[in-house]
Amino acid sequence: HALETVFAFCTDGDRLDCEAADDITLEIDGPFAAALGEDNLVLTAANALKQQANVGQGAALRLIKNLPVASGIGGGSADAAAALRLLTRLWASDPAHATAVAPALGADVPACLLSMTARGEAAGDHLVLVDDPSIAGTPVLLVNPLQPLSTGAVFANFQDKAELFEAVLTEDMAGLGQVMLNGAGNGSTRDRLVNA
To answer: HSE on the CB side for 81, CA within 13 Å?
Structure first.
């Protein structure tokens, strides 16, 4: 689906470290570690980069998962991008390899790899840097009821796009909340939002 968005990044979040090893391994700790399976986007990114860059080494990766899983804030994509950056440095490989594998990992992974405020268009992968000093230091409040939601399912079920744009343009926050709730559609996605 085509979209227009602005990617901006917070200083707090998950933490990823790595060190040289023979094989690619991943240890996961942190308050949301239990919600991740063994085969996740960090390992997928590491293996994709190893293959793309034709690297013979491995890496011992350690993820401290501080952000809620399936919360729509790009934590998994940011973790995958962090793995690409760390491993590019560790393996002394050409950064073009990381750029080449990023889009296949997720539409927002290229923006997370860039890790600078940018406007995303098309599938979110056409990036233009945004020079707006007012964005840096802007407080962010994350309210999460610890109910995972698939971002794809939310977009697929969203119904009232015209009402959403009207609420945003008129800065009608109450109306925006109602449109977002109504736009979640019928069925399990909306039920999970309402009952959270």
So the answer is: 20
